[in-house]
Amino acid sequence: AVVVSKTPNNVSIHGHTSVVGSEANPQYTSWELSSDRANAARRFLVTTQLSPDRVLKVIGEADRQLLVPQEPTSPRNQRITIMVLRGSYY
User: Fold this and answer.
1) Which residue, of 9, 16, 18, 29, has the greatest Cβ tally within 10 A?
2) Which contiguous run of DSSP H or E holds residue 44?
3) Would you call 58 helix, strand, or coil by DSSP?
4) pTM, entire model
5) What's the CA angle centered on 73, arms 41 and 45, to 5 degrees?
6) Tens-digit pLDDT profile for residues 16-42
């Protein structure tokens, strides 16, 4: 939050998951989890360091953009990506 707040750029927040599904609740898929993960990051940023107007997108990517594609169940695939948007200023 501190690093992002030092730039004048707007941001985009993406949530990601691994390929593991939920057996406990089949209605709560990797789409919901990745969207909730991105939104939790947004909430943290705007309640600590960042103006809410600087967040332009909050996106759930599910398991569509794996960080480690050769290991689809790897915990490294469960992450958020905060993109500082070039040419987009607050």
Assistant:
1) 16
2) helix 30-48
3) strand
4) 0.88
5) 5
6) 999 876 667 888 899 999 999 999 999
